[in-house]
Amino acid sequence: MPSVRTAGSTVHYEVTGSGPGLVMVHGTGGDGRANFGHLVDRFADARTVITPDYSGSGETTDGGGPLTLDQLVDQVVAATDAVTDEPVDLLGFSLGAVVAAATAAKHPERVRRLVLLAGWLRHDDPRHQLNFDLWRRLGNGEPSLFHRFLTLTGFSPAYLSRLGHQGLAELLANFTTAPGVLRQVDLDLRADIRDRAHLVTAPTLVVGNRQDQMVPVEQTRALHEAIPGSRYAELDSGHLVLFERPDELVALVRDFLLDDAD
């Protein structure tokens, strides 16, 4: 896996495919491969897909301490610059959506189009604070309980029920989180882009999930409303739409990224 140094960090990333760049930014507790590994080939025919791991995930390392949005923005840009100097499409999921929006606001010249999946605008919603504080408490305690809670709230009820007892047991058995997940959860509690969402100038698609219990769809709608001229779509999914509705999601994102009308 290639890597690049930036501001005290060594950022690891993967590259697949050919064509204009598409950078995929993972969410809390995951990494590029865990979140997007099953989707990369579905874009690699038309895009050079870049999947960086930001601090706390994969083999990316830094000096430790609390994470900041700007730190993760710099890591995403460094991985992008290591592969191409052309503007790229940028897709972020959950915390990665917040990072991607902050990247587009800070570096508008580097972003051709922007896709934000299940992201949020502000950190001070009481339910948001309750949710991620519970993540932190569970993560500091029994890992199996943490994984069970994330599974329970990450997928829609119908999706989990359709798995059956054996399927659900297999899902839980294979559930892992990044070693630096608690550093990322701490950033979830602080990440707020009300001061910069209006600076996003790239054509933007915001995608909310109607059954999202981690980042309720109202928060994603508020993100859409804060980005001038953004488009909005909703899927009938829980938060982990990457796994629950991959076909619908890929079709939606490809239509947006490959539409040259703008």
From TrEMBL:
Name of the molecule in the record: Pimeloyl-ACP methyl ester carboxylesterase
Record organism: Streptoalloteichus tenebrarius (strain ATCC 17920 / DSM 40477 / JCM 4838 / CBS 697.72 / NBRC 16177 / NCIMB 11028 / NRRL B-12390 / A12253. 1 / ISP 5477)
Domain called AB hydrolase-1: residue spans: 22-246
PANTHER family: AB HYDROLASE-1 DOMAIN-CONTAINING PROTEIN, HYDROLASE, ALPHA/BETA FOLD FAMILY PROTEIN
SUPFAM superfamilies given in the database record: alpha/beta-Hydrolases
Pfam families listed in its UniProt record: Abhydrolase_1
